[in-house]
Amino acid sequence: MKEVLIRYMKRYSDMSESKLETIVSDVPIEKYKKGTLLLEQGEVPQTCYFVLKGCVRQFAVDEDGRETTFNFFTEEQGVTIFTQHTPEKASKYSLICAEDCVLVVGDLSTEQQMYDMHPELETMMRKLFEENMGEMHDDLATFIASRPEERYKAFLEKRPDLINRVPQYQLASLLGMTPESLSRIKRRL
């Protein structure tokens, strides 16, 4: 499984194969069962993840008990809740394994140590974050500017693998609509 991580890192770095293998050699990989809660809303995140296999759902529950899905992370995606630099530090989201998962597990408290030991890693992570932030901004702009049917079509184009992997009510929540609306859109298309 570590070869998946090395292949991913090569996309953002020109480090040698041996250097990447050295970095990855100490990376812990854990298996989690479907339904495992990785982070509970209100906790201070201590860990980040990288999905080698499976699906992790990011969601929140409001004061009325309504659950909203914000994202699904699948193979070759990083999962981090960034709250270290906020006054509150507590996560506004929960993370749960939507499928059985194999995840790289990173300790956020040792992040700076890793950068000090491997300076190229910090540059690589910056490139990765810049790309992810650009995609997030584009996705948000598209979401705000589009009608529900257009959101669904865009989702089909960008993440078709998720259609059969997650429950329809969670997908509808992610797309900002009710499950009934999603069913009508699917029938029309």
Protein described:
By secondary structure, the protein is of the alpha+beta class. The protein has a domain at 2-117: Jelly Rolls (Sandwich). It has seven helices and eight strands. The protein has helices at 2-10, 17-25, 111-117, 119-145, 148-158, 168-174, 179-188, and strands spanning 29-32, 37-39, 47-53, 56-61, 67-73, 78-79, 94-97, 101-107. Strands 1-8-3-6 form a four-stranded antiparallel sheet, with helices on one face. Strands 2-7-4-5 form a four-stranded antiparallel sheet. A hairpin with a 5-residue loop joins strand 4 and strand 5 (67-73). It is globular. This is Crp/Fnr family transcriptional regulator. Residues 11-57 form the Cyclic nucleotide-binding domain. Keywords: Activator. It holds the Pfam family cNMP_binding.
List the defining traits of the structure above.
189 residues, alpha+beta, Jelly Rolls, four-stranded antiparallel β-sheet, 7 helices, 8 strands
Topology (SSEs and partners):
Elements: H1 2-10, H2 17-25, E1 29-32, E2 37-39, E3 47-53, E4 56-61, E5 67-73, E6 78-79, E7 94-97, E8 101-107, H3 111-117, H4 119-145, H5 148-158, H6 168-174, H7 179-188
